[in-house]
Specification:
Jelly Rolls; single chain; 514 residues; 8-stranded antiparallel sheet; Alkaline Phosphatase, subunit A; 2 domains
Length: 514
Amino acid sequence: MKTFDRVFLIGVDGAGAFFRQAETPCIDKIMKNGACTYDADTAIPSISAQCWGSMLLGVSPDTHKLTNSYVESHEYPTDSVNPSLFRRIREAYPDSELASFSNWSPINHGIVEHNLDVEFFSEGDDDLTDGIIAYLDKASPKFMFVQFDSVDGAGHCNGYGTSAHLAQINEVDGYIGRIYEKLSDRGLLENALFIVTADHGGTPGGDHGGVSEAELKIYFGASGDGVKVNGEIGEMYVWDISAVVLEALGLDVPEYDENGFIGIVPDGLFDGFIPKERRYVLSADDVSSPAVPCDAVQKLSAAGDLRCAIFFEGDVTDACGKTTAIGVGRIKYYGTGVYARCAELGKRGHVKLPDMKVGKDSFTLSLFLRRDSAEPMENAPTLFGTKNRRSDDSDGFTFLYAGNLNAVKIWNDGKEYFISLPLSEDAVDWVNITVVFDREAGKIKQYCNFEPYAEGVIPAELDGVSFDADTFVIGNDASGAENEYINLMYDDLLIYGGALSTADVKKLREYYKG
């Protein structure tokens, strides 16, 4: 295929595939003789840093590990094994002009290297456009990236796909038209590739980050001499955009290797181009677990009386078939769990187990928790329990997460009992927490990553007291309203009847660690 002299990459944050529903006369005119798709997939989770990072680095979020909070507070390393498009282009064309105009400044701060002499500019969409026009009056960039942010703001405020959200896409369409016209006036579109795309979509409720089609599907359109006229682009992912830019500028597209570059140029985009075989993708439906749930249940049952197993593979079904599990609220699922998908519980939603009764008996609960998915709060969130924390008259128990300290609180006849269970500071990212409520021995034992770590005593006055004061809830207290400011990531939750021994917990470790 031919090599382009320049590439202009325009990204509209939060627009998803909603370009199809919006009035976009400028984009329609630009892409009239180009190729496009409304069916490209973005990264999981469908969150800005993860998606823009995948677009500009050509790798999945599992590889680049960028999050919104991280890119806001850290500069992107200049020596990363996953260089940005800017670094790859600078190394190939050392004298070229490069520019990144981003409303959301963390892109310029935390996804693009700062030692490449890139022209950086961050302002609101209107002023951003004026800045781009002024820059193009004097510059002739080899590669220019633009990120508009107002569409995402309209989606959060009004809901994605609503009339206000679509109206803002129309507003940004006008900004894109101004940029295209300036490029044309300067003669910079001759032998140039012009791209319009998005990072993610969103839901009518104003959220994104999950795996619904409205969140995952994004638009990609390209125009320029050498692009297939009315081309129908085939399978495509957000990280493929890196490959498209590199191929267009005549640069080698990295092979998939241990550094994790996975972008390829999709079929149907360029005249005479034969795409490579896709080596690796990570999507909502292409995340494998080491064992299918039925096999997992059989193996996990070997550790004891397995009464409930929730793997969070897109729902909260008990894979044992023994316990009713009801998802409440807007639970979100991500393709970045310990084993395949995981769920975000807390203020977004929780799981009720109405027929899970532990009474006065021993029981064991094991779960994977992502410790960096939320900062611990002074009012420690409830990971699971049967106590309604909104009611002073409610009995029951809650298991609380407070960073490096977990705790069990038990209420009975208006009296509160507190049992402290420290958590290893060395256990970062995903950690397995297995808690054994041994009523016969009067102890609560906590295992961290399947190793004994902490132990507490159940007060003698609670002998013979039932813990079934209210509904057993995962991801909140029994009221379902206590964790109103926080979400935590859960994976593979197991509940056993009886107190698992250390030997039983080792069986869990053998299953999960091989």
